Amino acid sequence: MSLIPNFRRNSVFDLDLWDPFRDFQFPSSSLSTFPEFPRENSAFINTRIDWKETPEAHVFKADLPGLKKEEVKVEIEDDRVLQISGERKIEKEDKNDKWHRVERSSGKFSRRFRLPENAKLDEIKAAMENGVLSVTVPKAEVKRPDVKAIEISG
């Protein structure tokens, strides 16, 4: 196994990409290779969440397909920390079933975000629609300091 990729190609359309981890066996890559590992994937544990700031609010969006709103918690902790957590249960297995591939993830997830000083913590709203959780944190208006022009003499 070479650690340096081969960049010579027979054709410009040859898309055989070099994968440095191709020859390594990972527990999550195949259940048949490692039957002693549980059917819990870490992909769901690392739930990705978008955070955008608009002039009026901070908006968080998380793709949580297959979860109901009762399976997700949105909490505010001390010191302006927003926590989004939940759990996708492992599907019940029947002894007669033969699994060919398990790619959907399961398990617990928890993400935490420190909110800025201008967040209105008492006006946070959360909604779940079509597997997408949206959390809106309104912003307080930033009071601009009064500016007084000083005449320069001399």
Question: If you had to describe this structure to a student in words, what would you say it looks like?
Answer:
This protein is mainly beta and 154 residues long. 0% of the residues lie in helices and 30% in strands. The chain has no helices and 7 strands. The strands form 2 sheets. The chain has a 4-stranded antiparallel β-sheet, with no helix packed on it. The protein has a 3-stranded antiparallel β-sheet with strand order 3-4-5, with no helix packed on it.
Provide the succession of SSEs: EEEEEEE
The count of helical stretches stands at: 0
- Overall average residue pLDDT: 78
The parts where pLDDT drops under 50 for at least 5 residues are: 11-16, 28-43
Briefly, what is this?
The protein has 154 residues and is an all-beta fold. It has no helices and 7 strands. The strands form 2 sheets. A 4-stranded antiparallel sheet has the order 1-2-7-6, with no helix packed on it.
What structural keywords apply?
single chain; elongated; mainly beta; 154 residues
Helix and strand topology:
Layout: E1 49-53, E2 57-63, E3 72-77, E4 81-88, E5 107-114, E6 125-129, E7 132-138
Antiparallel strand pairs: 1-2, 2-7, 3-4, 4-5, 6-7
